[in-house]
Amino acid sequence: MKPIAITRLTICGIDELPTHRNHGVSHVLSVLDPDREDPTIFGDFDPHERTILRFHDVIDDKEGRPAPTRADVEAILAFGEELKASHQDRRDGHLLVHCHMGVSRSTAAMITLMAQVEPDRDEDSIFTTIREMRPIAWPNSVMIAFADEMLGREGRLTAALQRHYAIQLERDDMFERWMTELERVREIEFGRALSKQKASV
Q: Which of 10, 15, 112, 139 could share a disulfide with 107, CB 3.0–4.6 Å?
């Protein structure tokens, strides 16, 4: 993300925030549940700019818990535009993106920002970077679908997400158990479909 003078990227969950308070974080994107209290730990961070977004981490609308909307992803892209607009005011920066566990909303948000600032970058390389940054990454598929459309990636971001899911499912069966418990079987099936296609060739 050098074009916006961000030289360091971090993804984490709420419980990990204290470990980053002395890491020179300059910008924070917090993605929280609508009814969750705001973490107080940011009062211990160095001066920084922070944006708070609130929406649920689901992929299907549930009673009282709607899935992320186009407007939610628009807000992430607006955050990215603000970073780009302010790049002349600093030499470098450290962007921290977090959600509840640093698994789904935050990884989807970081992928969106990376795809936004590097429009010519190959989608698979973005997901490779995300896995290196956050090995437990399982990006929210609804968010990625909106980002794909809004950034004009013409389905390539979603296709790379499917390959990412397949890699994660092959890497550790924890993901299948975890996402099943979270009622996100549709994402598991999406990743498994690619493996089945390869097996049938």
A: 139
Banded pLDDT at 166 (limits 50, 70, 90): very high
pLDDT tens across 38-52, in order?
A: 999 999 999 999 999
Instruction: Give the range of the structural domain holding residue 119, as residue numbers without chain letter.
Output: 2-154
In whole angstroms, how large is the CA radius of gyration of the chain?
17
> 157 and 151 in contact (C-beta within 8 Å)?
yes
| DSSP secondary structure letters along 73-100 | HHHHHHHHHHHHHTGGG-S--EEEEEES
What six digits make up the tokens of 98? Answer: 């977090």
Q: Are the beta carbons of 32 and 38 closer than 8 angstroms? A: yes
- Nearest CA-CA partner of 112 in 155, 86, 151: 151
Confidence (pTM): 0.93
How many structural domains comprise the chain?
1
